[in-house]
Amino acid sequence: MKKYKKFIKPFVLSILFIFFIIISYRSAKPRYKPENFTDIFNDFSWLGNWPKWLDFPLMQPLNSGFDWLIVKYGLFFEGINNFLLGLYTSMKNSLVGLPWPIVIAIVIFITYFASGRKTNTTVMVAFCTFFLGFLSPRYWDKCIMTTCIVLIGMLLCIVVGIPIGIAMARNKKVRNALLPILDLMQTIPSFCYLIPGILLFGLGAVPAIIAIFVYAVPPLIRLTDLGIRLVDKEVIEASEAFGASKRQTLLGVQIPLALPNIMQGVNQCTMMSLAMVVIASMIGTRGIGDEVLLGLQQLNVGMATEAGIAIVLLAIIFDRITQSYGEKIQERTQPKKEIKF
Amino acid sequence: MKFLRNLILSFVFVGAMSLTTSANAGCKVHLGDFDWDSANIHTAIAGYIIEKGYGCEVESTKGSTTPIMAALFDQQIDIITEVWRDNLVQLIEDNLAKGNIIELGVNTPSSTQGFYVDKPTADKYGLKSVDDMKSPEIAKLFADPEAPGKGRMTSCISGWTCYTINLVKHKVYGLDKYYTNFDPGSGGALDAAIAGGFKKGKPVFSYYWTPTGLMGKVDLVKLEEPKYDQACWDEMTKVVEDIKANGPDVYKDTCACEYVNMSLTKAASTKFANNAANKPIIDFIKNYSIPTADVNKSLAFYMDESGGDMEETAKNFLSSNNMWESWVPSDVASKVKASL
User: Fold this and answer.
1) Residue A187 pLDDT class (50, 70, 90 cuts)
2) Chain B interface disruption, residue of A32, A191, A198, most B CBs within 10 A
């Protein structure tokens, strides 16, 4: 029996392959098929162009499955929609309602403490924030909308992504199962889930948040996984030698040591969220992205570029804050050079 | 040595490939296509006839209205088979005057566009005209989750002229107090918003038009607006063009009326049309015209039977109709027939 073990997998796969071909032949429309099944073996013209009957019927089941999802779980998606939308509108309204100098002050405050009181970074971020409104007063509110969407998307990514990353690092089976899914999420064209997002959630901010999640969570998961696996074996052994439980090792040793990598993941996640929120303007998401889209559609190069610069500034702000926070953590976790043994 | 031999062989191979592809490139036609399905069908049918009947190499570029129209004015695109002329009056007349394009007549007689409400909601609340929409209770049905207290009308994409036309209409009709003129961002998103509303059984209030494939699948009722009047439309167009150039702040009170039962037209770039070698193709495009009902039939075939294959849809149209045989000389018609 052991001798045949290596043939099991190819055998199952070829059975599956034949099964797929039979399905495709049976489901093809009669006008595409030869009159008799045996004609295939007499007339070989179908080897020239790809024959119409050799067409795996994936579109119809996907469509009906999607309809079923909308009808059956409509309420469920409505719940998610209302929750995210409530979060978004309350955040947006409170930020838009604030006078703009206060918003800039809040950003300065956050940067100052997140960067570990670095004046350079703080001045740079403050300057960029000021320039958002300075470029065009119209941009200020739109940038706030974009920021809110990105923040909520990131929050969702962190809440879901980091635990998944940890689970992947600790269990090889989980990792093997999840890696192809992450690949799929990163490579599938964004419109494949943007348009279904409209059907499920309606036009606006929520499909954008979902799209951000799909697009931006993989790097965070990967970097969390990598960060935890890169923690020195000796350090873990040492903590186990001192009698730390698995939980204590994870929370007290692995996560703190992996934090710089995790922060890098959060940083990547932010940048990708910002990229997605611009694409999401094509499904009616309000924000700075629709200025770019409008400029493009009206062939107004100046308008598109101006809005593009605003997006770059927004990216710099996000990048500086998350990056400098990561550096601060790294300084804390790495042993200082002055210490000599 | 082996590497060198392979290199030479691959060059020979690539060279042979390019020779075979350029062999039939006696003429080249660049068609402009848009991101909605009726335009795609016309491009597919016209492209098929030009390719098989006239033996030309056909390239088609798909995009949003403004970039594609700009490429036509810039002589990069040769022919567009569906131009929403009435939405682009100013732009087209400017470029006709400059001699950048020539018009080639009507492609689909009598298409309509306007404000639509789904039938169940329209029946339940007796919504017949835009005036019926003006009440807070009705607006609540179409609530815009991002603009509390207002309803949402899914409108055109901000790059389409009808977005600004709808903006002006909203103000003139007094709808702007109750509804947002919501830009869905792209043609696909507009369709998805309507289809999603119907799937979930939610009220739909949207700008839309015929002929479209979606129109055959959902039950939308067109709301009555003040009757079309040329003088009124011209007055409104001026305001619309002003807003497009200078932003929404320059709005001033104007008259407004329903969209005219418009004819979609065809256009070609002057450079292409003036080339004597292209005359047969220009003549064919001039003759090209498909009634709304047949466009709808083709759209239904495209959505339900073709499996999303435009060429298949074009072939189906050509083999189930013979109206196209009168557009082209008989030798071209027989070549097309032979290829079906």
Assistant:
1) very high
2) A198
